[in-house]
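Suppose a colleague, Dr. K., hands you the sequence of a protein chain of 406 amino acids and asks what its three-dimensional shape might be. Before reaching for any lab equipment, you can write down a predicted structure in token form. Begin with the sequence itself:
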Amino acid sequence: MRTDNTYLKLILALALVGILVSGWLLSIHIKFSTGQAGLTESCSIPLLGSSQGCANVAVSDYSVVAGVPLAAIAMSFYFTVLILVFWAMRNYQMAYEALYVSYFLSTISILVTVVMFSISRFVLKSFCIGCAMLWLVNLALWPCFVKHLGLGWGRALAANLELIRPRALKLKKERIGLSFALGAVCLLVFSVIGASAKGLSNENPGSGSALISEYQNAPQVFLPMEAVGGPSSKGTNAPVMDIVEFADFQCPGCRMGSQFLRPFLMKHGDKVRLTYRNFPLDGSCNSFVPNGGHTMACNSARHAICAGEQGKFWEMHDMIFDNQESLSVALLGDLVGKVGLDQAKFEACLKDSSTESTLQKDIQWGDLIQLESTPTLIVNGRKLVGAHSPTDLEALLQMLEKERNK
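The predicted structure, expressed as tokens, is then:
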């Protein structure tokens, strides 16, 4: 084993980077999986740009192990390495045991890296900037331990067996046990922190039983086939769960509902279809709410419809909701450029009478289902009122899947 601390200092620096990145990934996981992230929000790191890949990974089933966010488990690993290496630097008499346990954990991290890379690349087909940074940290930690411990590359992997069956070294079992116990404490602490933080961030962390009960008792309504699909629809064409959402772009509850639906659709787009229909609470276009006070709702709906004519409905939808508190004629005009629409075609669409006809169809369909408030979801022909958390929506989807498979 080397007597200088060059590699140990590098290991400490890498562990600190791991803690910071995994903490950031934990915040991403909590925000996106609980529907707290903005509709246009993506994972961004200064100088590296933005990526939707982290969000795709964050809402996937692979981001959680036994109810604990994987990022929290990663934090516990880096924190354990940090403490053990610092301990070894402070007390060389106990250096071997602490460093060999850290080395063993770094070997495990290499295996985890290979597995997570494979899942990301071949199953989720998403590239997560933060995950890639942790993979690089893991790949860098292992050779640093090998060099400091003075292990030959040929016997580096076999050296992990010293913890179980000592041969070349006289490692103290009590010190090995103490080192692993420290790691277990870190794992427990960060698991509790991660799971608790996610629970506190979720608006409705229940099992979804309330929504299932509401669905089972909800009235059945009729919508023509024309009301489903089109530019304002996304997801699969053969859904287990077919959702038609009636909403108003100035309604705060509608924005929350859309933020809840986003991670749910990201995760279950192969089983769910979502169609958005306008029901602006604005008397200037909606005769059913003559006293509606959302004065920008009708104009916002027209902008979304015309964006859909250029294949950009959802981009405009997300932009409008994320700028809901500052909606104005000028802002909507700015969003046209930000979304990347052809200005001339867009202005022609706004003046076209067919745009108003499309909006009035949505409103008529809202009246047809006796809509009383926004947002209202029509799920497989049943009317549900209000915004529903991703957790509750998942529970309802699971019930619908079971019913289909009976």
